[in-house]
Design goal:
2 copies of one chain form a homodimer. With 257 residues, the first copy, chain A, is of the alpha/beta class. The first copy, chain A, is built from 8 helices and 8 strands, in the order E-H-E-H-E-E-H-E-E-E-H-E-H-H-H-H. Chain A has an 8-stranded mixed beta sheet with strand order 3-2-1-4-5-6-7-8, covered by helices on one side. In chain A, helix 3 (69-77) links the parallel strand 4 (62-65) and strand 5. In chain A, helix 7 packs antiparallel against helix 8. Chains A and B meet through helix 5, helix 6, helix 7 and helix 8 of A and helix 5, helix 6, helix 7 and helix 8 of B.
Chain lengths: 257, 257
């Protein structure tokens, strides 16, 4: 299977490098708006590259878009891919957004957060696929199974719900980590002190329901401590609001039914 | 060192059981308001128990309070511990709250979230101690070092800041997990799909700054996706508010300076 990888960001990097080691799959070209980015990734994969959408290889089996959501339509409007197999990798974009650019479209959504600097073991990652025809679905399935055993065919609307949940348990969680890091810095506390707690909070979810293991002042309805903490956040009105709102929601979730 | 453990909840359980295997440390008695709880923990430790504060063993080296913050003063008001070494284990209670109950007071604060059902490896947990006299500080240090290599002497005000950061990276993070779990349930999505992402989000913090690895629609300022997600949360006004507020704060944190 010959693949043209469109994009050279975090996901394109991790995906391109992972695919380059798989039998039966060949990334033949990388495109990026930025030529140096395309070149850098193409070097890692060992393939050609271009920053000109008119120079895309014509005979690939799949054109895989790993660009930011906003860029998908802009790229496709300028790429001559009518009649080709095109798929995007976005959590919250319906497959239909591709309809005006080709007859054969699909989605390839690996549920993970990618950082250029961090190697990802794709074998543990669920990959959600969708296609508007059986041939395309077969291509995407083959591609996904080359990386992971956890391949699931789901609709655009279910993928959207998964992405929404992912925003809470990944993007928003990470921002709370960043708040904890910043609060530590401001008070000369080594953020490393907090890491065993941070890891335990995640690891216990392997076998326990987060609802069942909620701890802290809010679930104990310890208003005295909550008020002390809110007072400490005077200089950070937005964090104070987050503290207040999540504490209120913990009480709401656990004490009303 | 002979210790009376006051409390039989999550922390008292994990702490009592961990201490029962240490040389030089002996938990001689467990007190709990509930006799059956005191008995159950005492059995695990192999010591005596009571639910009557007037029956506390008189000659212990340390009376360690592992009860909820709200209960600390109530318990001490009814316990004959004047002149004894007493310490609490709370993150956000100043050491001073113990002053009216004894001359020799301190704090023993292991920074972890405890669940009765989960065994905790104390050796990786930072323990923060504080005392109003050297003898007490020595006791607490010996006790802490029997469990962990990471023992730090800090003030009540620094401990409070650590606890505040811990509420964000543990209690609030766990609540976001619970929201993700509930959203999944409502849309017939297996929450296990989200776990590799959840673990990766935590694990990458071992070596990377959370600020540096923020991903998602909010940091990409993808208002179109944010609006789609907010619309999906119509039936959960409180989660919608949390989504809005954290997204706004991500933008605020990363794009203003």
């Amino acid at each position: 299977m010959r693949i043209v990888l469109i994009g050279a960001g975090n996901l394109a990097n991790r995906l391109g490098i992972a695919l380059s080691t798989k039998r039966g799959v060949q990334v033949v070209q990388v495109w990026s708006r930025t030529e140096t980015a395309a070149q850098a990734l193409a070097r890692k994969i060992g393939c050609s590259y271009t920053s000109d959408l008119n120079n895309l290889v014509g005979n690939a089996d799949l054109y895989l878009l790993a660009v930011t959501d906003n860029a998908i339509e802009t790229v496709l409007r300028n790429a001559p891919l009518k009649g080709k197999n095109i798929a995007h990798t976005a959590g919250s974009m319906a497959m239909d957004v591709l309809n005006s650019f080709s007859d054969s479209v699909g989605v390839f959504y690996p549920l993970q957060s990618f950082t250029v600097s961090r190697v990802i073991d794709f074998s543990t990652i669920p990959i959600f696929i969708e296609a508007n025809n059986d041939g395309m679905l077969g291509f995407l399935q083959e591609l996904a199974l080359s990386l992971s055993e956890k391949v699931h065919i789901i609709s655009s609307s279910q993928r959207l719900q998964i992405h929404l949940a992912a925003v809470f348990i990944c993007n928003f969680v990470n921002h709370l980590y960043a708040i904890g890091e910043q609060l530590s810095k401001e008070h000369q506390i080594d953020f490393n002190f907090l890491k065993p707690l941070l890891f335990e909070t995640a690891n216990r979810i392997e076998n326990l329901s987060p609802f069942a293991v909620q701890t802290g002042p809010a679930i104990r309805q310890n208003q005295e401590i909550i008020d002390i903490h809110l007072a400490l956040l005077e200089d950070h009105p937005s964090w104070k609001e987050i503290y207040h709102l999540i504490s209120k929601d913990i009480a709401l979730t656990h004490y009303t039914k």
